[in-house]
Amino acid sequence: TLISSTEMLQIARKNKYAVGAFNVHTLEMLQAVVEAAVETQSPLIIQSTVGTVKHLGPDYIAEAAKVAADRTGLPIALHLDHCTDFSTIVQCIRAGYTSVMIDASMFAFEENVERTLKVMEIALAAGVNVEAELGKVGGVEDDIVVAEHEALLADPEDCRLFIERTGVLTLAPAIGTAHGIYKGEPNIDFDRIAKIAEIVDVPLVLHGGSGIPAEQVKKAVALGMSKMNVATELRIAFSNAIKDVFAANVEENDPRKYMVPAKEAVKRLAIEKMELCGCIGKA
Ligand code: 13P
Ligand code: ZN
Ligand code: NA
């Protein structure tokens, strides 16, 4: 069975590594990250955005993730990424998601607290973990667009207060990363990560994992980030592998053929990210 991400992330925090959290959009992508976890004996968070929930249906995703957890016996959680609306959260918890993100980071502090508390109430009763966001992560994720000048870093004291007010057990503070591939290098505020990790003890989430140079991921994890979200790079790897197949043979029409290298590419990339997270062998 799928487990909540709460304890998995607390263990990661205590042992100074991060769990890889991978956004999947198809059954093959889901299988690919599961195979990566099996091969490396890593804990795993499978994630879907609201867009993917609408695309595939929450029950299809949840049932596939349950099969993965049952077959592998690995600690696997299923997480709803960047959700802004309450009804989708309820729908996903009903389907079997064991972790949800309420992203009310576009609202003022008090409104963010209120919206997070509302989710906490139902999620706690269901044994489901809640991730909330403070500050604003830049870039584009599904329908959420944050321009660079609007991206706002999280204030450490606000983080402490937010956790005190909401009781959330997982927090995503904006610390300078962005969704999508960076133009140039990200501008990560490492001092801020250290400061936040010093004054709050819940696991912290690094969003915008695609495109962060390897050394910077390791540094962020060493300073206290306990979950890393990766979406865009996986999507690109998956799609490029399929493009290569069709470039070599435009007549190819068997998904059981063209999906194979795509799946393999996602698996390899997920393993690379797991290595940077330091979660290999921690299952
Ligand atoms: P990337 O698309 O940059 O990997 O960001 C992923 C993410 O933060 C999903 O919530
Ligand atoms: Zn994100
Ligand atoms: Na990114």
From TrEMBL:
The gene is fba. The active site is at residue 81. It comes from Paenibacillus anaericanus. Its EC number is 4.1.2.13. PANTHER family: D-TAGATOSE-1,6-BISPHOSPHATE ALDOLASE (PTHR30304), D-TAGATOSE-1,6-BISPHOSPHATE ALDOLASE SUBUNIT GATY-RELATED (PTHR30304:SF0). Zn(2+) 1 binds at residues 82, 179, 207. Binds 2 Zn(2+) ions per subunit. One is catalytic and the other provides a structural contribution. Keywords: Lyase, Metal-binding, Zinc. GO terms for molecular function: fructose-bisphosphate aldolase activity; zinc ion binding. One of its GO terms (biological process) is glycolytic process. Its cofactor is Zn(2+). InterPro entries: Aldolase_TIM, Class_II_FBP_aldolase, FBA_II, Fruc_bis_ald_class-2. It is an enzyme of class 4 (lyase). Dihydroxyacetone phosphate binds at residues 180, 208-210, 229-232. This is Class II fructose-1,6-bisphosphate aldolase. Zn(2+) 2 binds at residues 103, 133.
